Fold this protein.
Amino acid sequence: MKLLLKRDSSDLHATPYTAEVILETGAKINIERANVDAMGATLIVDVPNDKVEQVAEHFKRKGVEVRRLMKLIAWDEERCIHCGACIAVCPAGVFSFNQSWAIAVEESKCIRCDVCVKACPLSALASVEGL
C-alpha cells in the first residue's frame, strides 16, 4: 500500500525519520518519490500491506502527516484514444498496450509523478488522492 508522508519543519534533517521507522517496525519501505527541502518533505512510500498500520502509527508519533493513497491516477477510458503518449513518458511502467492495442493500466506501479497527466493530449488522465 502506498502512503503519502508530509512533514513541515526546519529541523527535518536532524532526525532520520524513515530510517528510524524501518528499524522500529522491521518493514521494508520503498521510497518511490521524495521532495525534500529546507522547509519540509513530502514522500510517497510503498509499504507491505501487513505492516501499513504499524508503519503509519510510527510516523504519526514522530509528527509526520500520513495519508493512504488508495487511488493515484484517474483514467477516463471514454476520452482516451489509446495513442500511447502515457506509455512513452511513464517512468514506472504503469501503462502498456494489451493484446488489442488498447491502453492497460497497472495503477499499483504509479509513483504519482504526474508526467502522464501532462503528456496526455486529450486530458484523459488526472491525479487523485484518496484516503
Notes: Residues 41 and 108 are 23 Å apart (CA to CA).
